[in-house]
Amino acid sequence: MSNNDTTRRRVLKLAGGAMVVTLAGCTGSEDDSDEPSGNDSMDDGSMDDDSITETRTTDPAEAPRAEIDRFSEEAGTLMVRNEMNDLPDPNEPIDFDQGPFVTQGLGPDGTAVEYYNFDVQPTAPAPIYAFFRENGDPVKDQLNVIDVIPGDEGYNDFWHVHEVTVPDDYEANTVTSGADLMEHDLETTDTDSIKNCPVVPEGSTAAKRAGDEDEGLVEGWYEGEVVSYFLFEEAPLEATDSNEVPVSPIYVSFNTNPDEDGGGPQSGFMTEEMSDQTHNVVASLPGDESYSPLWSVTVYDNADFEDVSDLESATSATVLATDTATVNCPVVSVGME
N or C: which end of the chain has fewer CB within 10 A? Predict the structure, then answer.
């Protein structure tokens, strides 16, 4: 399994220790805002060094939408569209609540768990920009900004949150791209917060969550176009000392071992007879200090499948390959029947 170095991110909330700050533009617009709506356009759309509000603002409801394809050769690693697998077409909504996008596995103590499959992702997060007033309040109605989408170099489902401070006269959605940020020369501060926000086609669904967060789509900006992404917040994530996404181990077995013809991911996970239950074992769960939805994959011999029932037995199995890839698989259910 090769590592995919593309990266994209969207953010709803910024977690800093025990404090959670709502980021602007992620939870939809409100009618009772005291701020400018951000939907009024200036007659002159040119840049002006003296005032950021001289720039035309954009209404997200009227803006074009970016085309998203998670299954192109540029975007995918394990899930690449071909004539055999019937993966959704570019920009076609994806139902992640069906195979091959959801898997039944086991927790460290053998409890049944369920997790989504969002393919291989790198450990280097991509930046996402959230907007705040000088007093620390989020800019109402402003969508977060990213500068990569699936298929772009540097895309990642995991986003490193950057706070952008704007002046009092800033109108929401004046900035709709990374280029706008650079042109306006706004103050930007990186945080320790990492968010898991896979960018997906509009209309995509993923209804399962381990926590009580909203399962709906969030909108953001990419190069002046609107994009949609999910938010998974089953556990807070912070960047490592090397500014990477933390990882946790997962132990998996395939129907055909990787060292055999047709083996590895293309053969599918090994499951119990007449069941979708794998013996893939995650080493941590939401709530554990070591939990991360970015898993470092170790493959064990499928001859040991019946003997693997929890983390202890998984680590005792015959290992065929370690750290073969890092995959985005947020745990969305624990103790499922």
Answer: C
Q: Which domain holds residue 259?
A: 102-120+244-334
In a domain, 224, yes or no: no
Ranges of the chain whose pLDDT falls below 50: 1-50, 53
Name the token pair of 224.
Answer: 């002046």
> 259 — alpha (psi -120 to 50), left (phi > 0) or beta?
alpha
CB 234 within 8 A of CB 15: no
308-319 pLDDT, tens digit each: 999 999 999 999
The pLDDT value recorded for residue 336 is: 66
Query: pLDDT (tens digit, 9 = 90+) per residue, 238-252?
Result: 999 999 999 999 999
Asked whether residue 89 is domain-assigned, the answer is: no
CB 214 within 8 A of CB 36: no
Tell me if 330 is assigned to some domain. Answer: yes
CB hemisphere CA count around 69 (13 angstroms)? 13
Pairing of strands 294-300, 319-321: antiparallel
Angle at 282 between CA 281 and CA 287, to 5 degrees: 145
Number of other residues whose CB lies within 10 A of the CB of residue 81: 18
